[in-house]
Amino acid sequence: MKSGLAVLAVALCTPLTAAAEEKLSILCSADMEWCQLMKKQFEAESKVRVSMIRKSAGEAYAKIRAEAANPKTDIWWAGTGDTHLQAAADGLTEVYRSPSAPKQKPWAQKQAAASGYRTTGIYLGIMGIGYNEAVLRSKKIAPPKCWKDLASPAYRGEIEMANPNSSGAAYNALSTLVQLFGEEQAFAFLAQMGRNVSKYPNAGVAPGEDVGRGEAGVAIGFMHDLMKLTVAGLPVKIVAPCEGTGYEIGSMSIVKGARNMAAARKFYEFALRADVQSQAVKAMAFQVPSNVDAATPPNAPRLENIKTIDADFAKYGASDTRKRLLQRWSNQIYGAGAR
Fold first, then answer.
1. 218-228, pLDDT tens digit by residue?
2. Spelled out in words, what is the top-level CATH class assigned to the domain 23-124+248-301?
3. What pTM value is reported for the model?
């Protein structure tokens, strides 16, 4: 009898224990070190079991769209805001108004409002140019100071920019140039610069990494990614282009129909906290955090010290604008240039 009761107790308790375990599936579009830091810290604090996949912003959006009928991701954390805005416009993400919203900086709150509260800003990153001073010096090439310098034949074969179809960073560069120069002039410049581009890799961080290794002379990318290379001791210098530059609002969204909605909201609130955002520097993440009380890394570029465009995130994050610009870039620039 006692044995039967013991078996019954095990049979009853085992499924209850399994059911009680919270799970969360995260799609992360930051650098892997930051993704892992967030995963480990959240797991330790919440006891939620996290599975995480790292993809660039463009790839993450494509995955969420492809799985819309049967979502396998609960929350998408990080990545350029235009892709999150596109997901919001497509109805792929949940409406969620965080109680922590008043503690976020105005640009983060504006991102949330623009999306109908289907996403929110979590950090800010500024677009720039990085160059390997040793490579340029050895080839007697003057370091760039402006965007239009990159059209000079002196940079033939020395420039890398990611593919904006897969990289949120590269799409930010594309939309920056269009907003800065106007669409026709921007594409004329991209065609001129394209003669100097050696390749268009898929990942936004790849051009900077190649420049850090001396495999290319110049990279277009986010300053925080380039700063990571500089802090690591590589001969990479960073330029804020003289004409002005754009910036991203890295964002976070809960996926529509998430299987683990309660856990997703827990992570959302966790990621907006000042103490959590202040830990980013441990992963050599040099973005500007969204929480007003979070510590900004000393190496982070300051928006107030850099000439920037008046970025229209709603327009350039809109599906029709994005698709049109990407198609034009693919046909006129990628189709005629480097791979």
1. 999 999 999 99
2. alpha beta
3. 0.83
